[in-house]
Predict the 3D structure of the following.
Amino acid sequence: MALDSLIKLFTGSGLKKRSWQDICADVLRLKDDAMVLRLADELLERYEQFDEDEKLEFFEFLLTEFEADQNAILTAIEHYVEDPSPNHQQELNLATLPRRRKFLEILNMCRGGMMALLSMRTALTGLMRKHPHLAAIDSDFEILLRSWFN
């Protein structure tokens, strides 16, 4: 794809036409920091407009689409069983981290990112009353917030 086409896809009206799910995926997929932050800003702007059902859909998406890579976990387990060295233990630790943690860290880098994350956690806490399976996401928020404020 030509550079001009990419720029149109990720800016202005091209960006507005993209689904929030695609934007989430691109936040983790792309390597250009400026583009990633632009996408993350757009996502936070959209999230602010979500109603409760859309927020539930957003958290369900994070839960299912941004979990840890099961194949990477199995590979790391095999390596650790073969050789329980510190390096393989670290490989296993990294493999078990859900991708949504990195996603939340990126959102935190946006303008107003910390406030947005606190708002998200408040919404998540309310949703967990009826949807306790979302607790894994709350755990991610708790781990990140403790690391940032400890």
Observations:
- Residues 20 and 43 are 6 Å apart (CA to CA).
- The radius of gyration is 17 Å.
- The first helix runs from residue 3 to 10.
